[in-house]
Amino acid sequence: MLTKADKLKRGEMAKARQAITKKLGLVSPPLLTSVLTGQGIVELKAEIAKRLNERRRTAARTQNNYSCRPNPSPVSYLLKS
Ligand SMILES: Nc1nc2c(ncn2[C@@H]2O[C@H](COP(=O)(O)OP(=O)(O)OP(=O)(O)O)[C@@H](O)[C@H]2O)c(=O)[nH]1
Ligand SMILES: [Mg+2]
Asked: Read out DSSP for 40-63?
């Protein structure tokens, strides 16, 4: 993810995003976020929740789990704002 997206003009940001994607060899362009405008914050939370759930599913598959109740889903926590 890239922070402070409000600092550059839209066109400059698009160019920087492309250049960074290429330079770092990323499979997809990074999310643009800004705490000033709120840009990308909902998407960022959703991405974090998605990745936590993927990990949780992988952990559940690869471990013996003797607990009766599952842990609360990280999604419900992250999507509260
Ligand atoms: N314009 C702008 N300023 C921001 C944003 N997010 C944080 N800042 C400011 O950037 C400064 C650094 O704060 P943080 O980003 O929390 O700290 P950091 O990540 O350790 O430092 P940086 O490498 O500067 O990002 C503070 O003055 C924040 O108020 C943003 O989205 N836009
Ligand atoms: Mg920062």
From this structure: THHHHHHHHHHHHHHHHHHHHHHS
Span 19-68, pLDDT tens digits? 999 999 999 999 999 999 999 999 999 999 999 999 999 888 887 656 55
Q: Are residues 33 and 60 in the same domain?
A: no
Q: How far apart are CA 70 and CA 65, in angstroms?
A: 9
Domain range for 24: 1-39
The pick from 2, 3, 7, 8 for probing ligand 1's pocket by mutation, whose C-beta has the most ligand atoms within 8 angstroms, reads 3
User: Is the distance from the beta carbon of residue 1 to the nearest atom of ligand 1 less than 6 Å?
Assistant: no
The larger pLDDT score, comparing residue 13 to residue 77, is at: 13
The rounded Å distance from CA 4 to ligand 1 centre is 7
- Could you tell me if 35 and 54 lie in one domain? no
Whether residues 21 and 4 share a domain: the answer is yes
